[in-house]
Amino acid sequence: MASAAEQLAASINFGAFSKATELKNRIWFTLGALVIYRLGTYIPIPGIDSAILQEIFKNNAGGILGMFDMFSGGALGRMTIFALNIMPYISASIIIQLLTAVSPTLEALKKEGESGRKKLNQYTRYGTVGLAAVQSYGIAIGLEGMRAGTQSAVIDPGMFFRLLTVVTLTGGTVFLMWIGEQITARGIGNGISLIIMAGIVANLPQALASTLELGRTGAMSHFFIIFFLLMSVAVVMVIVFMERAQRRILVQYPKRQQGNRMFGGEASHLPLKINTSGVIPPIFASSLLLLPATVAQFESSGPTTTWIGTITSYVAHGTPLYMGLYIGLIVFFCFFYTAIVFNPAETADNLRKYGGFIPGIRPGKNTADYLDYVLTRITVAGAIYLSAVCILPEILISQYAVPFYFGGTSLLIVVSVTMDTVAQVHSHLLAHQYEGLIKKAKLRGRRG
Fold first, then answer.
1. What total of structural domains would you count in the chain?
2. pTM higher than 0.85 for the full model?
3. Which domain holds residue 299?
4. Segment 371-387, tens digit of pLDDT
5. Are the CB atoms for 81 and 172 separated by under 8 Å?
6. What is the C-alpha to C-alpha distance for residues 444 and 448, in angstroms, rounded to an integer?
7. DSSP line for 83-111
């Protein structure tokens, strides 16, 4: 069966793609949705002086605002209707998943299947609206305090501007959340992840041009630019290798006799990914760090210096506190998200139901304990890998002022989402090929 699948995969070519009408429709739908998203990142909210705002963001490009602007695809720097991007949805997802782990009611909903999942998704949407409204109001207040010299970034400050900003930014986030869900259902790949990736990729050409400009003016040595680009390629190779790495656990199925024939007795593998949590931990960690730090950055741009300015200095890029919090959150979400997506007890129970067992391990609790032991060890390796990929480039960025977009988090998101999307395209092509073979077999059977 495996060899047949490999031969079928090898036979996939452009001709097969051209005949896969459903796949083409899904790809065109995804591209159209992403184009709409990119157009929205150029529609500014009313009441903003764009020239003053660009000057303020230019001075803070390497800090927290630069990171938030990276995830929003430049929408925050232009203060457009998609300035908040999809980050409130991610924060709401974190909160709901945390509550699911501690609340019996939400945990029961999770176990109800499709109906429970729909209710949890609805709670996540409500949480997204609430968080977006709070963050929008904070941004509105922060914008009123942002100045370049004596000029304010807001043309007419006041309650009307704040309410208008809340409605505009919250509506933009809800619209992006809807687009992401539509891409997931009717397009290719995970819609939320593709929106984040599209924002990062859109800024890569500008970041590359800025890096080359630093080399042209002599602000950065040509040797270091070449080294940094080679390091980015090396990071991409490490990401691809680690995202494909698996720990395969041998599972044996006993033989059984039905009449005069013997069935079963095959051996298969239970694949456990080294990085089970995928790209979720860096995104979750970044969003949690951005939530308080962005407001602090806005407030610290005001005319008075308060304790918020001290917080801003502590969580700035390159500081020990920022690095420590970032690593700690990545490690935490690696274990937390892995525990959510993979349940050793449930897996062991399913193996026992179908007669499967791990050689040398008793079915039931012993199998669950063994799976938990293996999963914990490989998750440690996955957490170290994610922390290294995300932190090492951050150190170089903070020390040598390289554009923020070449950070490990952005590369991890782009590479992981691209691999996942390509895998889904490949799966659709395989399904199309199988359907074609089945139709040919039926036609031959009728003719025979």
1. 1
2. no
3. 2-447
4. 899 999 999 999 999 99
5. yes
6. 6
7. TTTTHHHHHHHHHHHHHHHH-HHHHHHHT
